Amino acid sequence: MSNSRRIGAEVAIVGGGIVGCAAAYYLAHRGMKVALLEKSVIGGEASGRNGGGVRAQCRDRRERLLAMASIKVWVGLEVELGFDVEYLQGGNIRMATNDERMTTLRREAEEEREDGLAVEMWDRGELRRRAPYLGDVFLGAKYCPTDGTANPLLATRAFGWAAKRAGATILTRTEAVNIGVQAGQVTSVTARDKDGEIVVEAPQVIHAGGPWTPQLSRTLGIQVPIEPARSVLAVTQRMAPLFKEFVSSHDLAVYGRQARQGHVHIGGVGTPGQTFDQSMPAASIAHLARGAAEMVPALRGANFLRTWAGTLEMTPDKVPIIGPVDGIKGYILASGFSGHGFCLGPIAGRLLSELIVDGEPSLPLHEFRLSRFGEPAAPAQA
Amino acid sequence: MMRVGTPPEVERGQAVSIIVDGVPLPAYMGETIAGALLAAGRRAWRRTSHGQPRGVFCGIGLCFDCLVTVNGTPNVRACLTPVAAGMVVETGSKP
Amino acid sequence: MTEQVEVAVVGAGPGGLRAALAAAEAGAQVTLIDSNQSPGGQHFKQAAAEFRVRHPSRHQGEGQALRQEAMGAGVRFLPETVVWGAFEGNVLALHGSQAPAALQAQVIILATGAYDRPVAFPGWTLPGVMTAGGAQVLLKHQRILPGRRILLAGTGPLQVVLAAELVRAGADVVAVLEGARLFRESAPHVGALWGQWQRLGEGLSSRLTLFRRGVPFRPGWGIVAAHGADQVESVTIARLDSHWRPIPGSEKTLACDTLCVGYGFIPSSTLSRLLGAEQEWRPDLGGEVPVRDRHMQTSVPGVYAVGDGAGVGGGPLAQVEGEIAGIAAAARTGHGADGAEKAIRRLDPMLARERRFQRMYAALFTPGPGLYEWSRDDTILCRCEEVTQADVRRAVALGADSANEVKAITRCAMGDCQGRMCGQLVAHCIARETGRPVAEVGLFPPRPPIFPVPIVALGRQTVNGPAGGVAELARR
């Protein structure tokens, strides 16, 4: 294509989800020249299509510290970004329908307390007392008061707008198609938009491409073990205030929250694997309806108003891949958040900025490296 | 009032009474809740979350402006729902 | 439970009834679905079943006859049934007390009709402002007047007919405002009226009624604003230029308690979009409509679309299109395939006549671009979520470039009407702000359920659900 434009930047970011936008914001805020490339629109995929949960409880131990740190960021986000992202620290309840689940939750609670996360175990009586809106099916629950919710449609976009104000270049409807490497060092990202080709020349690339990451990383000869999966959501008509907690049950494979305007969002915990298909199967709508009615019986009198699906990015251990990749200088992965990216996005963005600006993040990231999967990165194609 | 036509030209359904916000309102079988409210001269019966008055707009069940609570069920479209004797209708603002 | 049927017809207005009848007469097994209690749609709207009306209108009589014919031909009717979704394999998801949870049809005929185009002007959310269609249904179905002093504003002959009906029913009609400037624009189209005797008769008798009662008919006039505290008390009107923009200095204020607004119709094309049928932007046909072949088949094999829902054209055109689709649908399911092409060709002259009328109607009565500039910054565009024009403009300034993006930022179209009211208003606003054509901006993508459906019903149909169980929802 004859129409090739060139942009120079200190950091190129691939992916306009919450991780990429937060990284762009923190980097630009610290004076770095940033260019972000997004194939469609800011926050248009999983970052804007999730349940809006922001929780530290019920996490893999590696992820827990990140989540706790991220929540500290979330608490101040409205002030920091100058935009109300509807963050509410309303607590998180993870329910159990059987003794086995209760035992797991109890064990998890001990570990969480060791790590400094305050959680409470509720038996049936306590659950009835504290969350009378929940169904009889639950034997008990684990509760974390510092967890909360936010509006997924607004949070990622707010990061994007703030990044732009801080001086970042945000290119939407611009799809990265190749990452250029010379002598083991990243040099550029090539992308396409409706007018042709754009080359961002940058010595550092943050790859936050979500489920589309493996495709582009393959241009570097790197296999990233991320698979797409469908998440499903439904929302009711506006209802009187019913609950402020984010509630979920793995036994029913369903979760829910009530948004500020009164609509109750219901999501599917489990997802069918290996698909980029974002159509909403009838069976999934039915599943969400049944789960909603069982979890929060007051919803039996409500209507579903709308449903939608999104594409999650699952790693084998359901823990994200964050950090530099051996063998390719300047290439930093930040993908595979496995459904946890909305909560972790703000801290991931901040740590990535520290990694690049300070050379060392304020929280260790080595446990999140790609190399944990034991696949050494192949040398880059020149 | 605003009902049109008298017997033998127009014979309405059986005369009934519905309870709107605790007050009996005359209606005829075959009329909708919205019809009965309009015939009684009531134009606005819902307040939006911003406090604005609303009544019937599209009249064919598409705009959801005329919502009322009927026998405890919220979000019922007054323009589509036929009256029935003793039906309890609550108007007023939505949550 | 998912039921297998040969032909499913969605919508029992003139197009759907005629399609069902034609398919049934050819020998197909037909299920006709409608959200109302009885067939007829808005066009053939009958008086309530509990009423006895001595002199039903011509349309009501015609509707009765067609409905009896269709039922007599063995069409099975599912009343009060909402089609809330469409899924792969021509599966329609239903909600209704007498309906199965889903139908899998060999052929689907969509005859979903159209609804009054919402127009945003200051005061349009005040009680007392209602659509012309809404006023007509009240009068036809329940014999109730929407108000006492009524101003009609809109375009096209239907509002003249409505005005005459309102006058005959005893209302004080303040004036009828026609947006188009008819005398300058109608001359080239006179020929298309040939053969439209019923329409001409109805139009003339309506005009005569208005003339006799001294009701002013004002071509080239439109609305500036409706005023009132808790309901309409007066309306400011103005002369329009050829683009339908109010001419400053020409304003007048009329006292009234009701404003009926009828600026044409928007096709209900949600289902065809949900089924994946290719759409095109046709302002002359009311907005976004499915692309069709000469048998009324959309780009999705086995999915047909007829009548106003596939492009506004009125009841008679809907009937011709319905008959063609009905014959084609039956042939597709193995009934009467031999004579089908001949039977369809026999309808060519009627189709041509109605299409001529449709073109004339579109040329005269398609609103000018100024119609979408009647809103001000503080005017609500999305009635459900109370999103103003300023909110939409702010979202565009932040970078939103599509209806869906503006929705994400402002909540417009996230309310109960699911974007039916604000869809075109928001699209036009974005187009204006970004300098792009409306077709490029696009409408809100439809998402099931396309009407609010009780969770209990959605959950119940899960048991035998339309697309199998929930095994695919593997637990993490």
Explain the overall architecture:
The complex is a heterotrimer of chains A (382), B (95) and C (476). Chain A contains nine helices and 20 strands. With 382 residues, chain A is an alpha/beta fold. In chain A, α1 runs parallel beside α9 and α2 crosses α9. The radius of gyration of chain A is 21 Å and the shape is globular. The model of chain A has no long low-confidence stretch (mean pLDDT 95). In chain B, β4 and β5 form a beta hairpin. The radius of gyration of chain B is 13 Å and the shape is globular. Helix content of chain B is 7%, strand content 35%. With 95 residues, chain B is mainly beta. With 476 residues, chain C is α/β, with parallel strands linked by helices. The two termini of chain C are 29 Å apart. Chains in contact: A-B, A-C, B-C. Chains B and C meet through β1, α1 and β5 of B and β3, β9 and α3 of C.
Q: What key phrases describe this protein's structure?
A:
heterotrimer, B: 95 residues, mainly beta, five-stranded mixed beta sheet, 1 helix, 8 strands, globular, C: alpha/beta, seven-stranded mixed beta sheet, five-stranded parallel beta sheet, 15 helices, 23 strands, 34% helix, disordered C terminus
Classify the secondary structure makeup of chain C into a structural class.
Answer: alpha/beta
Question: What does the average pLDDT of chain C come to?
Answer: 93
Number-wise, the strands of chain A total 20
* Percent of residues in helices of chain C: 25-40%
Overall pLDDT metric of chain A: 95
Seen as an oligomer or otherwise, the chain set is heterotrimer
- The radius of gyration computed from the alpha-carbon positions of chain A, rounded to a whole number of angstroms, is 21 Å
The helix content of chain A is 25-40%
What is the terminal-to-terminal distance of chain C? 29 Å
Low-confidence stretches of chain A: none
Structural class of chain A: alpha/beta
Strand order of the largest sheet of chain A: 6-7-5-15-16-17-14-18
Q: Compute the CA-based radius of gyration of chain C.
A: 22 Å
General shape of chain C: globular
Question: SSE order of chain A in H/E notation?
Answer: EEHEEHHEHEHEEHEEEEEHEEEEHEEEH
Strand content of chain A: 25-35%
Low-confidence stretches of chain C: 462-476
Question: What is the strand tally of chain C?
Answer: 23
